[in-house]
Amino acid sequence: MTESSTQQLMDSLLANKAAVNLANTADKNEALALMADSLLDHEAEIIAANQLDLEKAKGQIPDVMLDRLRLTTDRLAGMASGIRALIDLPDPVGRLLGEHTADNGLKIEKRSVPFGLIGMIYESRPNVTSDVAALALKSGNAALLRSGKDAFNSANAIMQALKAGLAKSKISPKVIELVQDTSRQSSTEMMTARGKIDLLIPRGGKGLIRAVVDNAKVPVIETGTGICHIYVNKAANLDEAVKITANAKMSRPSVCNAAEVCLVDQEVAADFLPRLAAAFAGKVEMRADERAKEFLPEAKAAGPDDFDTEFLDYIMAIKVVDGIEEAIDHIAKHSTHHSEAIVTEDQAAAVYVNASTRFTDGGEFGLGCELGISTQKMHARGPMGLNELNSYKYIVRGQGQVRE
Fold first, then answer.
1. How far apart are CA 48 and CA 370, in angstroms?
2. How far apart are alpha carbons 315 and 312 in whole angstroms?
3. Most buried residue among 114, 137, 178, 334 by CB atoms closer than 10 A?
């Protein structure tokens, strides 16, 4: 039986992965610089490919989702800057994570090592292509990427630019590849590639992530959807609370760190909610529970699913609560464990304190760029950068010891 194109790419990556698994820091950094330069050198081709994707997507996806798909000169410059930022970060490979000497004299070290070959299945954000390729290279991993069909032309143009830069380096361009088949078959092949893909990461909507988690036979790190909460505490500075909530909802609603739910302490609801409505006027649709609607007559009544929905749009669910205990209880029941914020002048608080959830991002956290936001309780939590793309091994040094 003839191998599929996806299987052929996996075989090629396995044959060539040592070129990056064993690469030294200087060679990896040189490769990153060349990849960033090539990305900008191929700006015209990338923008043209992106226009094809945008034209095909118009009328098929909401306008805010088109924004996730769109590439501009500034966004390409930001992608290149994200790659270059990795050059200045410490090489995660070979870090000493722990050491001790056993009673029998064996010296035992625990050191970080690359996974080997990582896979990424993602949807309509073409910048993920360059972020993941760069993170994989610096962390010593080969990478197989599968874009959604909405962003395929953009992702393919980006990948070709990155490989052109890599071809000028000491590292083979065959260590990063983009799957050319956007059918369900290629996803299935990646999810079931035991012995080939060492780690698979889905990045996209709830349906994609659930499909990978439920069906994968290779190790998976689950990135989560972002039902992010803002809780306005009774001790909040309400001017700050309006500014933070408006930023968390409106600055870029189509991304996973945008806030979807605002919980308001009943002691400040009468003052805060009309101020928030003024900031949202004509821009954000409010869906309020019964108590919040008393102060927001123009809001729609919240439906049964509104507090469990990642809107990714100019929509926010709003609820009045009787203090921090009810707020915590609500978040525990409805959160996807991505990012939560409390606005308060009482510093015995939680997670984001007096700041927008929009800062949950690899670049903002000093990681250069990110693979995604992990919401599980494995070794990777929150924005995943270089260190999260390494596993570890034990190195045991002896002087002839044998076990009795």
1. 25
2. 8
3. 137
Burial profile 11-28: b = 16 or more Cβ within 10 angstroms, e = fewer: ebbbebbebbbebeeebb
Range 331-337, long-range pairs (CB < 8 A, 24+ positions):
331/229, 331/231, 331/263, 334/227, 334/229, 334/261, 334/307, 334/308, 335/227, 335/228, 335/229, 336/224, 336/225, 336/226, 336/227, 336/310, 336/375, 337/224, 337/375
Q: Which two tokens stand for residue 386?
A: 């270089």
Which residue, among 179, 197, 198, has the nearest Cα to 5 in the 3D structure?
A: 179
Question: What residue type is 174 in one-letter code?
Answer: K
Phi, psi of 343 (to 5 degrees): -105, 115
The continuous run of DSSP H or E covering 325 comes out as helix 324-334
Other beta carbons within 10 angstroms of residue 61's beta carbon come to 15
pLDDT at residue number 2: 75
What's the rounded Cα separation, in Å, for the pair 335 and 352? 14
50 in Cβ contact with 154 (< 8 Å) = yes
Q: Give the whole-number percent of the chain exceeding pLDDT 70.
A: 89
Residues 6 or more apart whose CB falls under 8 angstroms from that of 239 comprise none
Give Cβ neighbours of residue 119 (< 8 Å, ≥ 6 apart). 143, 144, 145, 146, 190, 193, 197, 199, 200, 201, 218
pLDDT tier, 353 (very low <50, low <70, confident <90, very high otherwise) = low
Task: Name the maximum alpha-carbon separation found in the chain.
Answer: 80
Torsion 204-132-155-199 (CA) sign: negative
Position of tokens 């927001």? 296
371 vs 190: CA distance, rounded Å = 17
Does the pTM exceed 0.85? no
Section 48-73 average pLDDT: 90
- DSSP annotation of 103: T
DSSP state letters, 205-225: SHHHHHHHHHH-SS-BPPB--
Contact 404, 394 (CB under 8 A): no
Close Cβ partners of 304 (under 8 Å, ≥ 6 residues apart): none
Helix (H) or strand (E) holding 63: helix 63-69
Which of 223, 133, 150, 147 is CA-nearest to residue 187? 147
Whether 225 has a pLDDT exceeding 80, the answer reads no
For residue 331, give both structure tokens.
């978040």
d(CA 299, CA 285): 7
- What pLDDT sits at residue 366? 53
Cβ burial 77-112 (10 Å sphere, 16+ → b, else e): eebbebbbbbbeeebbbeeeeeeeeeeeeeeeeebb
